[in-house]
Amino acid sequence: MPGILKIALKLLVNDRSKFIALLVGITFAVFLMIMMMSMFSGILARSSSSVYNVGAKIWVMDPAVNNATSSIPMPDYVLSNARSIDGVKYAVPIYFGNALVKLKSGAYQAVSVVGLDDATLYGRPELIEGKIQDIYAENAFFVVKDAEFKKLESPTVGTEFEINDHRGLVVGVAKVTSSGLFGIPTVYTTYNRAITYIPSMRFTTSYILIEPKHDTDIPFIQQQIKKLGYQALTRDQFVQKISDFYTYQTGMGMNVLMMTAISFIVGLSISGQTFYTFILENLERFGALKAIGAKGHELIAMILFQASFTALLGYGLGVGLASGLMILAKLRLPSYAAQVTYTNLTFAFFMVLIMAGVSSYIGVRKVLQIQPFDIFRG
After folding, report:
1. Model pLDDT for residues 262-315, shown as the tens digit of each residue
2. What's 17-49 look like in SS3?
3. What would the pLDDT profile of 306-315 be if each residue is shown by its tens digit?
4. Secondary structure letter of residue 213 according to DSSP
C-alpha cells in the first residue's frame, strides 16, 4: 500500500497545473470561510464587551432586554428586593447610557457612559494612569484606552471636556478586556454623577449586578427575581442571549451564513471540476495499474489519498493566509473585529472533508469503470 500511495502522490504533483488549480480552489474557499466566520465571531465578542468588562456573575434586567447597549431602566424597589434575597452577598446598580462630548478642539463625539455604584465602584476597569479614588473628585471621569481612544483626541489626566453642558475632567486612563462594537469611546464615572449629567427617564437603574454567596445559590436567586417580573442571568447566559439576538434577530447571521455557503460552493465546484479533469487526463495510467494487477480498493485508496492530501494542504494554507491577514489588519486597524475560534476551524475542516469526499467520489466512479483492454486497445 505505501508504494501505491507514493505513485498516487507522484501522479498528483507531477501535473503541476492541475495540482496548483486544486490547491488554489480549496485554499481560496477555506480563506473566505475562515474570514467570514472569524469576523462574525469577533462581532459577537465585541457585542458582549460590556458584560466581559464589568465581570459580574449575575445580571438583573427587564425580560425585554436583548443586548447590553439597549437596557430598560428598572425601579428602585427591584434593587431593594434583590439585596434581601437569601444567598445574595451584595447587589449594586450600574448605569449604561450615551452622551455627546465636546472636546477641547471644539469637535463633538458620542460616548458610551458607564456609571459605577458610588459606594463600591463594582465593575470598575483597571487603571493605567491615575488613582481609583480620584473618581470621587468633582466632574471626574475615567476614559478607556482602546481602539476608539483617539476619537477623544487621546486625552491625558487633567484633560477637560464638556458633556451635556457639564464640565468633565479626566482623572484616569483605564484599559478593558474588550473594545465596544459600534466604534464609540467609553468613559466611566460614578452612578449618581452619570444620572445627573445625562437626561434619563423616571427610572435610572440599567442593570443590577449581584454577587452570590455561593454559586449554588444562583438558581434560587434567579427564581426570586423572576417572581418580581424581571430576569436574572449569569454572565454566560447574558452573553448567549446577546449572541442569539445578533445571530437570529438581525441580518448579520443570515448574511454571514450565505457568504460562508457561497465560499463552500465555489471551493467545491473548483475542486470537483479540477479533480475530475485530473482523473480524465490520467485515466490511461490508472488503467495500466489495473492491468498489471492493482486491485479496485487500491485504486480507491490512491484517489482518496490524492483528494485528502490536496484538501488538507489547502486547508492549512487557507487558515494560515486568513490568520496572517487578520494579524496585519489588527496592526493597521485596531477596531477591526475578528477572531479565529476552534469552532470556526472545526467547521471549515469538516467543509474541506466534504470537498475531498465529493471530489473523491467523482474520481472513484470514473476509475472503477475503466477496463484495461480499452486502454491498451486505444
Report:
1. 878 877 777 777 777 777 777 777 777 777 776 777 777 888 888 888 888 889
2. HHHHHHHHHHHHHHHHHHHHHHHHHHHHHHHCH
3. 888 888 888 9
4. S
Question: Grid coordinates in use for 247?
Answer: 445571530
User: What's the count of helices (H) and strands (E) in the chain, helices before strands?
Assistant: 12, 10
Residue 205 Cα distances to 17, 95, 97, 266, 369, angstroms? 65, 6, 10, 50, 74
The beta strands (E) that lie in the chain are given as: 58-61, 88-102, 108-116, 126-130, 140-144, 160-163, 166-175, 186-190, 207-212, 231-234
CA distances from 283 to 3, 87, 185, 310, 367 (A): 19, 74, 63, 19, 7
Residue whose grid cell is 474570514: 35
**CA–CA–CA angle 86, 91, 96 (5° rounding):** 150
Considering only CA atoms, give the Rg of the chain: 30
Q: What is the rounded (10 degree) CA torsion for 238, 241, 243, 247?
A: -170
Q: Is the dihedral of CA 93, 98, 102, 107 positive or negative?
A: positive
> What DSSP string runs through 60-73?
EE-TT--STTS---
Between the alpha carbon of residue 217 and those of residues 57, 88, 91, 137, 316, the distances in Å are 12, 8, 14, 37, 46
CB atoms within 10 A of CB 101: 21
Cell reading at 145: 484606552
Residue with cell 492541475: 18
How far apart are alpha carbons 210 and 123 in whole angstroms? 11
61: left (phi over 0), alpha (psi -120 to 50) or beta: beta
Question: What does pTM read for this prediction?
Answer: 0.79
Place of cell 448579520: 252
The answer to whether 96 touches 264, Cβ cutoff 8 Å, is: no
| 111 DSSP β-pair partners | 99
